[in-house]
Design brief:
- The protein has about 475 residues and is α/β, with parallel strands linked by helices.
- Among the domains are: about 150 residues, Rossmann fold; about 170 residues, L-2-Hydroxyisocaproate Dehydrogenase, Chain A, domain 2 (Alpha-Beta Complex).
- Helix content is about 35%, strand content about 15%.
- Strands 7-6-5-8-9-10 form a 6-stranded parallel sheet, with helices on both faces.
- The radius of gyration is 24 Å and the shape is globular.
- It binds (2S)-2-hydroxybutanedioic acid.
- It holds the Pfam family Ldh_1_C.
- It catalyses: (S)-malate + NADP(+) = oxaloacetate + NADPH + H(+).
- Its EC number is 1.1.1.82.
């Protein structure tokens, strides 16, 4: 029997002797518990919330758990008064193996030296096998990755990349914590099933939920993809408000339950201002940890320059996207390089650079929507991977990458207290510094001013969500997301 990775859960209460009462399409395991101390009576209640058929099941006491250091739950305490334990939704790990598929207890599969758990059945026994196997590998400690909008198209590409090890490395086991909505929950179960069926060795836990306070528990990375698209007739101000509320709530949840050093990448549009709202609602997490995804724009810009210069795109470096992920964004051809030379020396058609190139990058998302009938998904997922990898691997000497980051303290004279895409470098420790050797000319300054003005206006428009008083929406012109043309 092949090892099944999903049930290696170090903060998971396991049910023993469970098969007789298992519902046919889910083997339930409970992931992190939201109470500071969880007695078996609480757990039984929690079980009942999910399925009455668990009522008589025996629950292993906490000391039967293998012990991943559990979140200090410090912040969680703050939530207890408003959210009583018994009322919390418990995230689940789902398994598509039904009892009648389990032929027999897999007792013989237990490797020598591992504790034999006679009460386990089928796939549950592999929990112990894999734990023993882990000891023989030089794997890093498990990391928790929360993903919102997890049933959407972007996630459908991203999650499998994360699970395969191509993002965090082949020695980095991960737990995926997937946030969906009431509407998407069934689809989310489908996503979890597909992840299971993929048998990724590094994927050790999958939990799904609708409540960010549950799903973001102990998250070390939060990839915030879910957002409402702009509907017909909706003003940009309306979009900012609707999505802003989602990101205010998620910021609060991160502040309360995520790792204190969680890295947050906001993808849901308008991502810069959503990231600002999110960080303002998470005062206990460093503002520097929040990013708005502009890596897709960087990748698009590199592709266009490579095409024009007739080189492969790996020859393009130092590609900055300045400002907002909108049609005012500034793809900076002044500082970008091709084969280590300034772009303007390789592509001498300045009119093309200022007009065609710039507009092509700004509007690429919209053109793609016209072709596809939906917005970019695979390339967005790839760019999220790129954005993460840029933070966890050292930036090549002399190069940089673009990310929408908190502008306070920036050396470029850009307005403070907004989330603005700028050139960043990382030592590979998850942190970044802003690139220093950047030049400006009048054209670049003027373009940057325009995207800055847009972001400042967006900020005024969401003041009610950032704790800065009454909102005042005077958006300079109804500028567009890249996809809204
Ligand atoms: C993109 O750049 O492709 C997307 O942000 C477009 C959109 O509006 O969804």
């Amino acid at each position: 029997m092949s090892s099944h990775p999903l049930y290696i859960s170090k903060a998971v209460y396991r049910l023993s002797r469970s098969p007789p009462s298992f519902p046919s399409s889910s083997c339930l395991l409970l992931l992190s518990f939201p109470c500071l101390t969880l007695h078996s009576s609480h757990l039984s209640m929690a079980l009942l919330e999910i399925s009455p058929s668990y009522a008589g099941s025996r629950v292993l006491p906490p000391n039967d758990l293998s012990s991943r250091p559990i979140n200090p739950l410090l912040a969680f305490k703050n939530r207890l008064p408003s959210l009583p334990c018994s009322a919390r939704r418990i995230p689940r790990i789902l398994c598509s193996v039904s009892p009648n598929q389990v032929q027999a207890p897999v007792l013989s599969a237990t490797p020598a030296g591992a504790t034999s758990k006679r009460e386990c059945f089928g796939v549950f026994c592999t929990t112990y096998d894999l734990k023993a196997a882990d000891k023989t590998k030089s794997w890093k400690g498990l990391i928790n990755i929360a993903v919102s909008g997890a049933a959407g198209m972007i996630s459908n590409h991203l999650l499998f990349k994360l699970a395969s090890g191509e993002v965090f490395g082949p020695d980095q086991p991960i737990a995926l914590k997937l946030l969906g909505s009431e509407r998407s929950f069934q689809a989310l179960e489908g996503v979890a099933m597909e992840l299971e069926d993929s048998l990724y060795p590094l994927l050790r836990e999958v939990s799904i939920g609708k409540d960010p306070y549950d799903v973001f528990q102990d998250a070390e990375w939060a990839l915030l993809i879910g957002a409402k698209p702009r509907g017909p007739g909706m003003e940009r101000a309306g979009l900012l408000d609707i999505n802003g509320q989602i990101f205010a709530e998620q910021g609060k949840a991160l502040n309360d339950v995520a790792s204190r050093n969680v890295k947050v990448i906001v993808v849901g549009n308008p991502c810069n201002t959503n990231a600002l709202i999110c960080l303002k609602n998470a005062p206990n997490i460093p503002a520097k940890n929040f990013h708005a995804l502009t890596r897709l724009d960087e990748n698009r810009a590199k592709c266009q320059l490579a095409l024009k210069a007739g080189v492969f795109y790996d020859k393009v470096s130092n590609m900055t996207i300045w400002g907002n992920h909108s049609t005012t964004q500034v793809p900076d051809f002044l500082n970008a390089k091709i084969n280590g030379m300034p772009v303007t020396k390789v592509i001498t058609d300045v009119k093309w650079l200022k007009e065609e190139f710039t507009e092509r990058v700004q509007k690429r998302g919209g053109v793609l929507i016209q072709k596809w009938g939906r917005s970019s998904a695979a390339s967005t997922a790839v760019s999220i991977v790129d954005a993460i990898r840029s933070l966890i691997t050292p930036t090549p000497e002399g190069d940089w990458f673009s990310s929408g980051v908190y502008s306070t303290g920036n050396p470029y004279g850009i307005a403070e207290d907004i989330v603005f895409s700028m050139p960043c470098r990382s030592k590979g420790d998850g942190d970044y510094e802003l690139a220093k050797d950047v030049i400006f000319d009048d054209y670049l300054r003027e373009r940057i001013k325009k995207t800055e003005a847009e972001l400042l206006a967006e900020k005024r428009c969401v003041a009610h969500l950032t704790g800065e008083g009454n909102a005042y929406c005077d958006l300079p012109e109804d500028t567009m997301l890249p996809g809204e043309q």
